Amino acid sequence: MANNPTQNGTIQDWIKDKYYASLATTAATNVSYLNTTVAWAVSLMTGALALVLSHEKFPDKPSVGALAVLLIVIGHFFVRASKAYTNMMRFTTLEKSIIKSILNDECGDRTAKEIAQYHVGWHCPLPRRKIALKVLTELGFGYFFLIVIGLLIWTLFKSSPEWSTCFGLWIVYQPKCFSSNQDAFMGLLTGVSFAIPILEILWMFFRSPYFKNIDVLKIAKEQG
């Protein structure tokens, strides 16, 4: 990396001084955003479940609707948490790279490439699978999904016994399977509540600019 002069010194000096100082603030902001997102998810889920379970007629069809909406909300917060965790790791990775360069008394092509990849190019610093597992396990969203989905399916069966033979997207092909429009609507709502989070998560991981792929093996060889 060439030592091109800037107004206040070389590019290496700018990276070690001003750019590094800005990373600490940016990383702290993303940590705070991640914590806030998880806290909101826990609060909303706890409050919603308390209201549903304390409902006098639970399990009933309105409970199915409430749980279906809750599943969509949890899916959205999972997306937000994944983005926040990705950004936190993005800037933490750059911060660690600059610290290593300072300790080694150098700031060369490797640091510049990482800045170009993760900050300028906005590539994902971790594989999608690792991010998903982190958010699902350590941040607790896997438990959120299991609780809400399990309770939703159980409530659906208890409030509408016909679902024991007419489950899932069967409604699309056999609408007469249900004896009432209300049952059919609850079936459709449940299907939508599963479809929206799945589509949002798939779009996030495979279409969102937050999760652009890089050649991890190539970078590992270059840095190895």
Topology:
Blueprint: E1 5-6, E2 9-10, H1 11-53, H2 61-103, H3 109-120, H4 128-137, H5 141-159, H6 170-173, H7 181-206, H8 216-223
Antiparallel strand pairs: 1-2
What proportion strand? under 5%
Low-confidence stretches: 1-8, 164-175, 219-224
User: What strand order characterises the main sheet?
Assistant: 1-2
Quaternary structure annotation: single chain
Work out the count of structural domains: 1
Per DSSP E runs of 2 or more residues, the count of β-strands stands at: 2
Proportion in helices? over 70%
What is the count of helical runs? 8
**Major β-sheet annotation:** 2 strands, antiparallel
- Rg (C-alpha, Å): 24 Å
What would you note in describing this structure?
The protein is 74% helix and 2% strand. It has 224 residues and is an all-alpha fold. It has one domain (7-223). A two-stranded antiparallel ribbon has the order 1-2. A hairpin with a 2-residue loop joins strand 1 (5-6) and strand 2. The chain crosses the membrane at residues 33-52, 64-81, 135-157, 184-206. Keywords: Membrane, Transmembrane, Transmembrane helix.
